[in-house]
Amino acid sequence: MLVRVITKKFCEPNVVMYSTMIKGLCKTHDYVRAVGLLKLMDKSGCKPIVVVYSTVIDKMVFQKGIPPGAVTYNSLIPGLCKVGRSEEASKMLKEMSDDQKMSPNVKNFSILVDALCKEGKIEEAEAIIKIMPERDILPDIVTYTSLINGYCLQGYCNESKIDEAMHILQEITEQGLEPDVVTYTTMLQGLFRGKRCEDAKELFLIMKETGCSPNDTTYNVLLHGCLKNQQYDDVKMLLVEMDERGLEPDVVTYTTMLQGLFRGKRCEDAKELFLIMKETGCSPNDTTYNVLLHGCLKNQQYDDVNMLLVEMDERGYLLWASTLSLLQSRIAAKILDESLLRLIGKLEPKYSINASCLDT
Predict the structure, then answer these.
(1) Which end of the chain has less Cβ packing within 10 Å, N or C?
(2) Backbone angles phi, psi at 285, to 5 degrees
(3) Do the domain assignments include residue 102?
(4) How far apart are CA 286 and CA 317, in angstroms?
(5) What domain of life is recorded for the organism (predicted)?
(6) Is the pTM of this model over 0.90?
C-alpha cells in the first residue's frame, strides 16, 4: 500500500508512515519487504532513524535467527553501523565472507571501516583493512579516506595521529591510488584542527598541482581553518580564488568568516566582507545580523549599530537574547542613545535563544 502511495505520488510519506509499515511487516515475518521498504525509505530522502534499523535487525536476525541473503546483508550492515552496532556488523560481514554463496564487496568493508573509525576504533578498522586482500578485495580511496578521517578525529589531543593520517595519505599515493577531493578535504580539516596551518597550505597546493579541483566544501574548510588560526591574510586570497573557480560562499560561510574576523579584532575587514556578501547577492540571515551586532558592540564599533538594527527590522529578523542584553547594557551606560529603545523593542525575541557561539 505504502509503495503505491510513493510511486503514485498521492502524498509524501514521512518517517512515522515508513516506521509503522516496517514494524508491521516485521511482525508478520515479511522481512524481505521490510528490508525493501527500508531501502526505499533511504533512497527517497527520508532517512531512517535508529529505531527503524533496530526493528528490522533485531526482529529478523537476532530474535528469529533467520539467515539473511546477500541483498539483505548489504542493507543490514550499513544499518547496524548507523545505529552504532559496529561489532554486530563486523560479525555479519564475517558470516557473509565465510558463506561461499555470498561475497562481500569493497563497499561492505568500507562502510564498516568508516563506522569503526567514527567510533574511535582505529585499530579494529586497520585490522579489517588488512584482511581485505585475503578476501581478494583491495581497499579503495573511500576505505582509506575513512581511515584518514579516523586518525584526524583523534588528532585533537594527539598530534601523532595527524602524522599517521599524513603518512597514510603519502603511502596510498605511492601505491598508485589517487586521493580525491573528499580525501584531501578530510586531511585539510585534520591539519587545521591540529593547528598545523602551514602543513595545510602546503597540502592544498599539492592538491591543486595533482589536478584535484577543490570544491565549495574544501574552501569552507580552508576559510574556517584560516580564521580559527588567525591566518587572516589568506582569507581574501581564498575568496578571490573561489570567485575565479565560479564558487560562491553561502550565508553560513560568510557568517562564520564574519565571526572569525570580529574575534581577531579585524572589524574593518568584517565590515568590508559584509558589503561584499550583499554585493554578490548572498542574503544575510538573522544569525548574520546578530553576529555583526555582537561583534560591533564587543569591539566598540557603535556607528553601524543603528543601520544594522534598521536592516533587521526591514527583513523581519529578531534579536537574540545575548545581543539584546549587550544593546541594553550599552544604552544603560549612555554609550548608545536611548532613542534606539523603540526600534529594539520591535526586534525583541519572543523566546530566549542560547547564542553562546557568539562569544567573541
Answers:
(1) N
(2) -105, -175
(3) no
(4) 5
(5) Eukaryota
(6) no
